[in-house]
Structure formats: C-alpha cells, structure tokens
Amino acid sequence: MKRFYAEVSVAPAAEGYRVLLDGRPVRTPKRRALQLPTRALAEAVAAEWQAQVEEVDPRTMLLTRLITTAIDVLPERRPQIIAELLEFARHDVLCYRVTHPRELVARQCAAWDPWLAWAAREYGVHLQVTSGIAAVPQEETALARLRAVVEEFAPLPLIGLHAAARITHSLVLALALARQAVDAAEAFRLAHLEELWEIAQWGEEGEQRKRHKALQAELHAASLLLQAAGQPN
User: Fold this and answer.
1) Which pTM value belongs to this model?
2) From CA 31, how far away is CA 157, in angstroms rounded?
3) What contacts 56, CB < 8 A, 6 or more positions away?
C-alpha cells in the first residue's frame, strides 16, 4: 500500500510508549494497540515506519512484524510457541557434529563446546552431543529446566526468543542472545558454521548470499526485540 502518513513520532502511553503516524497510534492487523514497554523499542519500530518511502512494505519491517505477532497471535498460541522452543532444544544444532573432515570437526568442537558449557553453568542443563545425523535423546530433566526458563519470558521477548531459535536452530544460542552473552552476528556465524565453512572452500552462490542476508536481518530484529523488551535474568 502507498505510504499514507507524513510524520512518524514516539509518545508516552498509559503503559510504556506508542508509535504515532501523523499523531495517530499504530495498531496491529487485529486493531489492537501497539503498546511498547520502552522508548528504545518504540524508536526502533518508528524507524522502520520512517524508512518506508512511497510504498509501505511489511516485508521490510521485521521488528514491527515480530511485535504484532506477539500481540495478535501469542495469547492463543503461547503453549505451542513454548513447545516449539523445546523442540529446538531437543534437536539443538550445537549437539549435532559432522564426522569429517577433521578440520570442520575440530572447528565445531572449538566453537560449540563453550556454549554447551555456558548452558550448563547458567541453567544447569547438560545437553547430549552426537556425530552424524541420527537423533540423540535429551534428558527430560534438562528439557524441564529449559521449559521453566522459557516460561518466564514475557510475550515480546518470547517472540524474539522463538525467532532467534528458529533462525539458529538452537535454543542455547537464542538464550545466549537473550542474555546478551553473544551478539546477532556471532550467533549467526555459530549456527551456520558448517555452511560458512563450505562457502570458504567452494564459494558462495547468489541465492545463498541472498538467503543469508535475509536471515541475518531477521536475527538482528529478534536481537533488538530481546534487548529492548527485556528478558529474565
């Protein structure tokens, strides 16, 4: 649709902040108020609306889309979202290692082992590691601890966590991003270590570059949401 507003601003609201288009508050597709807990988050959303030129393209408004999902979809789908997050833990990319070549085996161990150790320190969770594609079962006690952690997340950061886990295929990396133990660029590199190693060997295709760029932008938006909305300590 055509850009229908001239001015974008941020204003205090009853609970937090809101984004205004020509003085009128932005609403979700279900016409719910777009209430934001911090000015930083409201300003990041306002920047997406300001960046629209002649046409408003929701595909470029990644942060706004995540927030409207949290407001419009999460109330009915919260149990499903949490279940999906636990599935990322059951099949966390950090737990699945290649068997060859040796250089990549060593690189995965060096890059991923510290983050599994981080999860053990932070959450008392010890995830099982395997080589090859056969699934390795994770202990139910570890998954129960992770469920307890995830259930503490408020709606906005929970959607950010889900987006980060979906892009990285790792609940551990998503939680590290939420705790600001890792940034979005490094989380992407860790999650796509094997693919990036292959690119270093044989080069990158155009479609691959385009896909990576889109995923990095999504992960950056998820990281902004986690940082600005806050998350459990």
Assistant:
1) 0.93
2) 21
3) 1, 2, 3, 4, 49
